Structures are given as structure tokens and as C-alpha cells.
């Protein structure tokens, strides 16, 4: 197919078509491909190939015999086992227990070393049996009886023509049809014939000055160098005509202006582009198709010699001439006027060879087109006349017949000249061209009855006849220029396309936006062509209905409140435990009432019944390089390390297939070893009886035929060179009968005999060898071993040793003494192939010395101690060290005094045995006398140490976090943890700094138990919304069931995510209070009251009853106001009233009169009567009991009820006697009447006299079990009928909550304290006292000695860490302004990519830090596990971070400390971290090329209590 131009599905040209799955043109066989269909990319190229005519040969009748393919499917002829043998060799068979055998052909291996199932990622052949009555078709197992007969395809109707490709000069319109009436199915034939048809359009010539169409297409690439080397950025492209092959004329070749370099810029020019400058043929779909000079496809119109399209050669005359006289230089031959056509000029040489005369051509201004200024063009060329479309061909000056010709109409006047540079012969120039005739104006006229033009509309349009200029004599059409002086006649018109109408038509409607209640739906409205006679409707482009008003594209709708969804069974087991497999599940269409529906009810919903699984890599065996052969000659073995690994992590061998484990030992053979050779036995040492005989035993190299030293051969296998021999019994024995031989003599003559040693039991190292030992009597018979007890018994088993390695010694250390005698040491190791091994594998007899004595110059006498004389002799002063010399100046010569002049001397410290902690340094310590000679005794108590510990610092070690959550709850998953190499101070190093062999595994398998079969979550219908209006919640019951709908414990479905049990909902809009503007103040001066109307309103309805609104949020309807200060008046007292004997008044009052400053009584209108007060005095009457009374009896009489309203007007007394207690309501004692006259309006309820009081409930339990908490109770305003009321006064309302104190709290500060003091061993949430605040902490590992503390994250999904996986192909940019896009020029190849979500984080309560590498309560969504608060990428080096992390500690009582810092690692790393004001939330973006950020190692990730 590549010969047809079809690209592979992974070709960059296919990327724009978004090919996501491989099909027939897959680049290679892969696990996910569909080999039965073409991709969109393949369809495009095959269609283009056939549409452009290349496939016409397929219509030819074959010349050879046609072979009919068998009707039976190939899988019925070759079963699955035969297909496996064809793919993998004889003996291979289909693997059993494959769930979907039709998806891929899995076969057993024929190699014994590699057992298992293998696939080449291709499906079984169609027709392969997959079950009783079933076979494979296109990767699916289907019933054989469902096969239907083949259906051949038929063409559908032609679609409307496309828009014209050009506006003038002859464009192309195309129409297509599809093979869909019907489509071919079940192996039926495809439609025969062309899929596309073309017609010409806009055939009028383009106006003068219009840019050439091909030139326009080249100019579109101006300024684009197209990544071509050497092309400037400001390049200008021109069309290229010459040098292009005939078959490539319809490709867009353009050349760089000013050069001769040209390139292919497009595979096809636009439809309607002329094929060349000398033809009228035009390009259609990349093919050159015949056309006439009238720009119409398949037209036979040609230009006559006068340059008139379709002319009869009568509008011009031919000018001819000969020029043959000249002088030196340029000679004018003739002027060719503008409008001339068919120019043909020839210059003949005298002898048939080029002479000294040459043609030249210039314009009227003297600018030469070629051969000017005595410069010749020797080769053929095409010349474009500047400012015109005229093309002139010139043969070149090196031809015997020099020629200039052009068929185009000349738009400029040209001057023909001949250049003569010799005097031998005259030129011979012949020329001819046509010029227009000068016609009389009355010979032409306009003809209004030309051909009909196209219809102005697709339906119900108008068309007119074309007006042409014609000869009056023969009515032939001439150029319109001939009639330009005549007035145009009126157009002849008529109606057209009257058999159809254009209408807007609704062809489809979307689903209602609301599945329940009122919503909207979108209408799919298109322009339709309605055939009046045939009654058919065809969709056309919308612009054809542009003159009609398009209907609205939305309409109201109502959802039926019935929802459908796919209900799934549980996923099947993955087909592979690793390395990418598949799993499937069954689907059922169900509604929201739990009823199962037909599948077509849910067909518009997406359904996922198959998915990839276990795409992580499989553990595999890895092996090191083979060692060298463990022997130096002969046959031996070589070894290597073999281990199980996943990526770079070492796993235990149980994770890999033991049957495929590579061998760790292998036989090897070197040159033949030297061997023992033996000679013949010599004569026996005795002539009778028992003796012995000898033979030669030598070590011989057979290859060299040389005798070697005995040490070159293996001593243990040396043959014996001596053996016993028995001849005829001696006479004294032979004369005695055997039976009469004394037993004592026989016993005394017995001796031990032994055989040869067996080979050593090991090929190298320490082993054993054995030999046969027996006791023989004088007659060489086997005797009891007690007969030989007087002789030493030879050994039967002997230790043998063959070295496996060789000794290697280091350099000697400096001498331990600076003078005299000392010691020097060196390191000696047993090495095997550059690796140290146990010393027992090397020959101890040849071990090099580790220590030897060394001698230096004699030491000067020492004066550290003279026991015989308390005074130092004076003759020793000259040998003393200078008094100014310090001990440090001679640090290598350390002297330690001892007895009798003997002293300890130490050498320098040797090198450290380790590069980090745990190493040792050694030095020599010797005892010397005062002469520097070795002494036998020094004070042992003062002996300096010979060893000391050394190392610049602690060694890095492997550190690892806790295991994360398992990827599967059953059926086999993996869990991971972070394993890092770090110093004890927390500094992280690269892995190679730690011992890689000892690296703990970072991935292990988990939950290997099988998943419960056929269990699923059952979902009950949602309850109604909890709120009657506004936002609320819906609830439903979700429980685990088996295949028989029996309810199980939830743990049986733990492997499947449990559906949510509640969700948010919204009911109708809630009513709300509406308050009008305030009225004017009730007074004109002083303090008054303002009022306003307050009512309950429902949006869209208007005012509703107030009970529908929340009374507690009702706005106030009055407020105090203040106007201007009032004029001062006085009040005059009148007589005071006496105190009342009743308890109804507790004051006596006196009437006040209003007077002015002159004590004149003023009208009360002036002094607002509402402000006239009564003076009062206290009366000592007993306190009264009051109740609130609503209105007076006259107002409520016979009219009280819920519909009437009244004002609170006064209080009344209730005597405190039992007979007046109404409904056992206890009267409330007020110090004063609590009622203030109010404008509030209330309801009358049943009776006119209405009692209301605050009623309280019981106190709840304290909210805490220890410490300070809160107790609550209900407080309601209740009438005597037990109904809720709002008549009670708020300032008298009893408290609804109060503080309470329980027992003293036993506060714990760690999970360890809870474990020890409360004897609790269960993991769970506990409350700890952290920095004086009680915080809920999850205690884990409570059954271990040291439990761990974890902080539960309330916003779990907002706590994640990510290492972004995409990498820019050009890392020195930041596309899309730094935002993520899946269509970036990227590859998804970052090996460290991963995304981890945290539900709990571990905290260290001592250091108050988060342990970011603890992954116990994390879930890695994909890729590698990423520590907490860490992010990175390998995306860009241009400050364009994409890796993200998020921290949200809201609701935990803790926050990230302000001292937290992040450290960047890697190259080109950039970081951006945002922090909330309260410190509970962080969001970071980090990345580089490659780079990441993580909490600073010195400070960690500190936290604080809020």
C-alpha cells in the first residue's frame, strides 16, 4: 500500500487526523490494533489515489485467469492449533483458559527453557472455533447462525456541488456521492464508478493586472523558509515552469526569487490552476485535465491565429519579411506592435554552423530581453515580458537556426534587432506575426440572445442570457472590445429552478438539558432543498437559505425524571498479572428506579466493558557478566549472579518465574592440564612371597611433550609409584599345609594395603579425597583389622585443597620507626576476578607476608629515663633536642618512656580502611632500648594503641518509607514505597553511593488472594431532597450483594469502589423577605419613629404568606428617627393622684399642662401631645403577675382566627391564686409591664384572649467527656394551645446553651502513652494533646512497640504530589503560555513520572515535622510513588514548570509553619509556591529539564497547631 501513497498510522502526516488506534497500516503488530479496518488517515490517502484517476486500471478486465477464493472461512480450514504451529513451530498449541480467545492468538512455547504462553498480537483467523456453535469474526466470538448473506454497496445521490475554486479564469466545482444506499456488508462488493465529478465555473477571463493563479499560490509561502538550509527568512517565491516533468505539472513547484533553486511546496495545486504557460489544460485533484481556451473542462475551443478564442482567423492579417543587410553592432529589423500574435522569427546561418549574427529583442524603451549589451544567451530559455503575462521562447545563440517564437498576444510593443560582430556573411532573418485588422464599427453588434448563464439561486431563482459581440454578416462571436462603442441592450431573463424550494428544517433535537423538570434543548436546523414534484428533501449548505430568517436554535422542554445508566458487573480477572493485560465486565441498562431495560435504551450513553490492566512492567530475571573459568586448565565452571528485578529494584526470587531463571553456573574448558604419566612396573623386590615393585611417575604436559616439576600437577591425584607384589610362596611356607600354618604366624605377617586416592570432592577450595584401606594376611587374604593392629593404619580420608582465587598484596606501609628497627605492613586479599573472596579459597601455604621488619639508621641515645642516676649526665646535653622544638615537630617519632631505658616507639597511622565511618587505621608499635634496638620488655600499661577508628563521617544508608496502599484489593496487585540513599542527617544521594546489592525492594506484590466472584454494590433509589426549597442533600442505601441478590457484608465488595451514598440537590427557589423604603419620621422635631412595609416574596410569584419565610431573619419594620430640635416648653403640675390599692399600678401619676416661658398654657398641638408625660411617684404596692394580652375584646370578638390581625396594646394582671391558673401556665412576675405599644401585626388564634410564654426543654449531655464543653436545650415560644407563637419577648428568652465541665481529662501526648497507659492495641482515631490543643490523630501500628502518629486529611483529594510525565521535544520553549495541553509537541517518556494522593500523613510529634516519604496512607494513581509536598518534571528548560503538589490541612487543627522552605534539585529548575493566609493550604508548581522541588532537608516540613 505504500506504493499507493498510503502512510503508516504512526506517520506524522496522520497525526493531524488523530489516529489513536492502529489498523491495517499499523507500523508493527501490537497488542491494541484492529486489523480489519482502515484508519482515517489510510482512507484519506486511498481515496485521493482513486479520485485522481490513478485507480482507473482497476476497471480493466484481467488478462489472466481469475482465481476464486474459497467461500469457507480460513479458521474452519486451519484450526487454532494449526495456526499456532504456523506461527511458533511444530508442537505449539492454543493456550487454555484464555478468556477472549478471539482477541489475540495465544500459543504455547515449543522451547523447553521458555515455557508459557506467547502471542504475536494478531487475532485468530476468522472462522476459528471459540465455543459450541460459535466462531471468531473480527476479534469477537459470535454465533455461527448469525451470519447473513453478502450485501453489495450501491451509490447514494450526488451531493450539491462545492463552491468554485476560483473567482475568474476558470475554476472547478466538485460533487461527491457515497456508497451508502446500502453500504456493503458481510463481504459484499463496493460500488463501481467515480465517487467525484467536476464541472467548470467562473470561466470569464480575469481582469488585467490580476495576479497569476499559480503565482498567487507560491506567494502564500513568502517569508517562510520551510526549514530549508540556506533559504533566507524574507524569501520570495515565484512559480517554476521549466524543468518540471509532465506528470508533475500539477504539483506546486516554486523557485527562490533571484536564483534558479526550486522546491516542491505542495503535492497539489489548487483546482483550476493551468497546467502550464503554453496550454489551456487545467489541474483537477492533482491531475492535468483537458480544457479549451474558454476555461471549460473537455471543451474543444481553441485560439485562432489572431489570438481569438473560438475565432475563424478573420480578425487579423499576417506580416512577414526578410532582413539580410547589416553593419557592425545592433541592427533594427522590425517593430512588433502590441496585440500581435503567433510571432515566429528565425535567423539562418550561412553554412549550417553558428555564425557571427545573433537575434536580440528589446522593448520600446530600449531594455533588452536577451542578447543585449553584447552579452549572449547561448542556451534555450523562456522569457517573461516584465509587466505582462507574455512568455517568449528563445532557442539560444548556439543553434544553426536561431529562433524566437510566442503564441501569446503581445501586450507591449517589441523591437526585433540583429547583432552583427563579423564581416564575413550577412544575416538571414525571416519573421512573421499576426496583427488585428482595423474593422469598421458598423460591422459588429451586441447579441442579447447568448447562452443562458447560471441560475442565481438553487431554487426559485433567475437566470439571464449572456450578451455577446458578433459579426453582423455571419453572427460569429468576436471580442467584446469590438462592441465597446455600442450601448448594451437589456438582459433577457427567465425564472429557473422552479421545481424546488429552500426551507429551514429541524433535522434533529438534542436531549433536554434537564432530565427532570423544565429545561432547554438545542435544535439542529439546516437548509433543506425540497423537490416539489418528487417530494424528496436533500440537505444543502446553509448559505443557500441566507435570505430567509433562521428559526431559533433553542426551545423549552421538560424532562421526564427517568434516568438511564449502564450498570456493570465486577471486572473479570486481568488476563495478565503484569506487563499489560485486559479485563472485561458485563453491562446492563437500568433506570433510576432499579428496573432493567433493553440495551438500546442506553445506547446513547458511553459504555466501558473492556479496559487495560496491570500495565506495569513484569519482574524479570537479570544476570551479571560471566566470570572467568574457575580453573586454570582443563574442565571447570564459571559463575554469574542472577537476580529478580523490576525496573532497577531488586526483588526476592519468588516474584519471577522460577522455570525461566537463567543458569548461574556453566561448564567451561581451558587447555589440557598437565597430568601424571606412569611407566611400567619394575621387578618385584623378592623372588618369593610378598614384596613390592616400583615405577616412574612424572608430571607431563601432553601438548608440549615436556616433563614438568611435580608441583605443576595436582599432588592429591598423583598415582602411586609403589605396589605390593606376591610371587610363589617361599619354601618354608610351601612345605606347610595351609591348614597347619600357625595362627600366630599368619597374624604376625598381616599388613595394611591401600588403593589410590580418589579425585578431590570440589573443583576448587577445600575438599576431601578417599582411598580403600584393608588388612591382608600372609596369604594376601582379607583379614580382620585386629591382625594389623600392631601397624599404624593408613588414612582413608585426606583433606585436599585447590585454590579458587589468588593472593594479591598491596604496597608496604612506611616503616613504623623513624630510626632503628621497625615494622612495615601491607594488605593481603584473596581475589577472584577482581573481587575479594573468603581467604579459605586461596592456598594458605603461598600467602604473602603481611608484616616484615624494616631497618633504618641507628637512633640517637634516648634520655627519657635513667633509673640508676637521678641526675642527667652533662655529656648528654649536646645530643638533646633544642629547647624551642615542640613535640609536634616530631610527631612521627613518638616516644613513650618505660623501664630500664626501654620505650615504646610508634609509626605513622596507615590509610583508613573505609571512606566513611566504620574504618580502622593501623600503626606499628615496637619496644626499643635506648640504642634503638628491639627490646623484649616495655611497660604494657603504657603501650600506645595500634588501631583507631577513622572515617570522615557516617556512611550513607538505604532509607525507606512505609508501604503505600495496594493497587488492588484482591486478585494480585502491587504496592510501592520510596527507597532512597541518604546520610543520617537527611541528605539524599544518588543510588550508586549506597550498596546497590543491599537496596531494599521498592515494589512488592500484595493481596494475592482471589477476588470474590459475582459480587457488586446494589444502589437503592435516591430519597427526596432534604430541603423543600434551596440547597439540600439526597441519600440512598448502598449495600453489597451477590449474584442471587442476597445482601452481604460490605467487606465482600471491598475490591470495588463503593458508590456515593449522598449527593447535593436543589429544590425550588426559597421565598425571602422584601423590605420597602422607610416612611417619613413620625415627628417633625425631636425623636420619632420610622416605619416600612416588610413582606414575604417568592421570585416569579410575588407576595406570599409570611409563614413561608423564616421568621428569625425578618427585617425590622420600624426604627427610631430624629428631626430638628423642638421649641422648649414646660409642663405645669396639676393635682397628684393617690396610690391605687390595686396591684395594677405601682406608681401614682399627675397630669402636666403645657406652658411657655411666661407660664401661659399652650395648645397641645404646639407641644406634641404624644410627648406630654405624667409625673409619677413610687407606690409600695405588692408586685403583680402579668400576662400578655393581644388587643382588646371588642376588636377580636367573634372575628378571631388565622385571617385577622391585631396589635399588642396592654398587659393585664393575673392574681396569683390557684383558681386563676389557666391550663397550668405559670404566670410570669414582671417588675414592670413588659409590653410596649407596637405597630407589629399578629394573628388572632381562636380566642381573643391569648397567652404565650417561653417553654424550655431538658438540657442535653455535656458535649465532651472531660474538660469544658457545652450543654444545649430547646427554647420555644408556646401559646396555651401548644402552638408556636412570636408573642414572647426576645430579651426575656431563656438561654439555649451553657458551658459544662466534665471530669478532668487524662490528656495523652503520644500514641505510645495511649498504648501503655490504657492497654490499647487497636489502630484508630484518638485525641492527643499537642502543644496545649486537643487534636484528632490516627494511631497506626498500635500492636508494635513504637506506634506512629498520622494526621487524617479532611480534604484528601486536595493533597497530592505529581511528577509530570510529558517532555517537550524542543525543551527551550514554553508553549501555550505555560498551560498544559495534550496536543503539545511532546513525548510521554519521563521515567520518574507519577501521581500520588494522600489520605493521611505521618507527623513526628517530637520535631513537629511531616514525614514526607511515608506512603502508608497514600495511593499512587499512576507511575512511580511521589513523596508528599514534592513535585517535578522533565518538561522544559524555559521556566515552564508542570509538576504540581497540593497541601490542604483545613479541618485538621494544624497548619504548615511559616519557616517551611522548599529545595530545588536538577537542571533549569524553577518553582512557584502559593500559600494561603492561614497557612493550611499550599499549592506548588515545580519542574525543569529535569528538575524537582522538595521540602528542605535541614528544616524538613514543619507544622504548627492553629
Topology, element by element:
Blueprint: H1 12-15, H2 40-51, H3 74-77, H4 80-88, E1 106-108, E2 117-119, E3 129-131, E4 134-137, E5 140-143, E6 171-176, E7 196-201, H5 213-219, E8 237-239, E9 252-256, E10 262-266, E11 282-284, E12 287-289, E13 316-323, E14 329-336, E15 341-348, E16 357-363, E17 368-370, E18 381-384, E19 391-394, E20 401-406, E21 414-420, E22 429-436, E23 444-447, E24 461-464, E25 468-471, E26 477-478, E27 493-496, E28 500-509, E29 516-531, E30 537-539, E31 554-560, E32 564-568, E33 581-584, E34 587-591, E35 596-597, E36 610-613, E37 620-623, E38 635-639, E39 642-646, E40 649-651, E41 665-669, E42 675-678, E43 690-694, E44 697-701, E45 706-708, E46 722-726, H6 731-734, H7 743-748, E47 751-754, E48 765-770, E49 773-776, E50 797-802, E51 806-809, E52 821-825, E53 828-832, E54 835-836, E55 851-855, E56 894-897, E57 903-906, E58 919-922, E59 925-928, E60 947-950, E61 957-960, E62 973-976, E63 979-982, E64 988-989, E65 1003-1006, E66 1015-1019, E67 1031-1035, E68 1038-1042, E69 1047-1048, E70 1062-1066, E71 1072-1075, E72 1087-1091, E73 1094-1098, ...
